Amino acid sequence: MHSIDLFVKNWGSKQSMTPIDSADIAELEQRLAAILPNSYKYLLSNYGLVHTPNVLSRICDLGVDISEVQDFLSLEDVYSLSKLYEMSGMPKGHVLFASDCKGNMFCFKLSDCERQHIDIPVWFFDHQLHTVKKVSPSFSEWLGEFNKL
């Protein structure tokens, strides 16, 4: 979980972070009929909703080809936006958890959430193209990419 701690230290906007109770996370899992990866639950239960306003600036300054993360979604938004985006063209079977500054979303595949995992791949939904592509083999590795910037 070191990459998660380092990500929050490097990029998190401190004033917006409040840890989320594990009972609330469990309730979300029940509503989604999914088991979220332990790495993501670690982020939520230790730090809460991380806002990363400086990631985009750094990516632009360096000219790297990486989709920036700006906000991690509230638990209610994880549930409601996952359903809403499906209705507006996103392929079915994804759990949204974070967004970039353009309305694109980072998500987990619902099929990867059928049983407990420490970590699972991260996918990127491009809302203009209505495509989903894998951006990292795991949540921790995905956050670790930002730590290299």
Report on the structure:
The chain is built from six helices and five strands, in the order H-H-H-H-E-H-E-E-E-E-H. It is of the alpha+beta class. A five-stranded antiparallel beta sheet has the order 1-2-3-4-5. Strand 2 and strand 3 form a beta hairpin. Helix 2 runs parallel beside helix 5. The two termini are 18 Å apart. The relative contact order is 0.19.
In a few lines, what is going on in this structure?
The chain is an alpha+beta fold and 149 residues long. 40% of the residues lie in helices and 16% in strands. It has a five-stranded antiparallel beta sheet with strand order 1-2-3-4-5.
The general outline is: globular
What is the average per-residue confidence, as pLDDT, rounded to a whole number?
91
- What is the count of DSSP helices, taking H or I runs of 4+ residues? 6
- Report the sheet-strand fraction: 15-25%
- How are the strands of the biggest sheet laid out side by side? 1-2-3-4-5
Instruction: Decide which structural class fits the backbone.
Output: alpha+beta
- Unreliable residue runs: none
The biggest beta sheet is recorded as: 5 strands, antiparallel
Distance between the ends: 18 Å
